[in-house]
Description:
Layout: H1 2-18, H2 22-33, H3 38-45, H4 51-90, H5 109-122, E1 127-128, E2 134-135, H6 137-140, E3 168-169, H7 175-183, E4 188-197, E5 208-218, H8 223-237, E6 244-251, E7 254-263, E8 280-289, H9 291-296, E9 305-312, H10 313-321, H11 328-331, H12 334-337
Parallel strand pairs: 1-4
Antiparallel strand pairs: 2-3, 4-5, 5-9, 6-7, 7-8, 8-9
Amino acid sequence: MKTTVQQLQADFIATMAAVSDLNGLEAIRVNFLGKKSQISDLLGQLGKLSIDDKKIWGPRLNQLKAEMTATLEEKTISFEADALESRLIEERIDFTLPSSGITKGSLHPITHVTRQIQQIFAGLGYIVAEGPEAETDHYNFSALNFGKDHPARDMHDTFYLDTPENRLLRTHTSGVQIHLMEEYKPPIRAITPGKVFRSDADVSHSPVFHQVEGLYVDKGVNMGHLKATLQHFFDQFFAKGSDIRLRPSYFPFTEPSVEADVSCVICKGKGCSMCKGSGWIEILGAGMVDPNVLRNVNIDPEEYSGFAFGMGVERLAILKYGITNIKLFYDNHTAFLEQFQ
Length: 341
Ligand code: DAH
């Protein structure tokens, strides 16, 4: 027994002297202290010894086992500290190095144009208001004088939602007019930017696009005010010198209704491919708020009148920046967006 124990201790010391990493330590632990190790074996044999031998070898073996355990533990802690130290050296970050360059973000052209519109109308005393994108039939259609079976509903390619109130994705921002007139008493001057949705997609149509609606309700508002307001807007938005013309049109919520054209910003009215040779570009719908719409929000049409207009933001951006494909707005390639710093 004595030589075996001495040999075991010597083996352990020699092996420990040669170990160089944590994996090696684990192997030693399994070898020298595991279930199948020599020490376990020796402890198992204690039972067969005489009482006197047991008294000597019991404590001796347990002491050896404790020593080996402690030595292993100490070495493990020291190896772990070494490993941490070398990782810290290896992964050191030099905060004084110059960065690889950060590119500055820019506003999306749609945001640019929306803000510009807001700014121009703020100069005329218009407030900015927003309405819900998931709207009820009432606000998107009925209150705007679209009768239940009105054919104009079909032109809106509506997305209907499976919600308790049968909401739909608003097809235009005109419904915000109703919210505004319910909330405020005239005089009301507001513009309402926002997303609108129609089940329609090709090179010039996207199922989601942006509109800005305008509303002015007060005593004595007339078509002359509408035309002057639009002219002022276009003078500010495009370079001065862009003419506008109003053509008769139809919308359920305005009477009379018009469509407004601006003289082509590309050819200045001479005729080009942008304006299809006509010299004019259709840009928005507008009109005098239909008396039925005013009645729907308890405003007396005998006392008040108003005008409204609605325009597509993408269309304005296309004309302003000469963009050829509506998809460019949604692909969001940085090479495109960076041009709008
Ligand atoms: N809501 C109409 C559309 O999406 C645009 C429009 C036309 C808005 C006439 C108006 C208006 O406020 O008076 O096509």
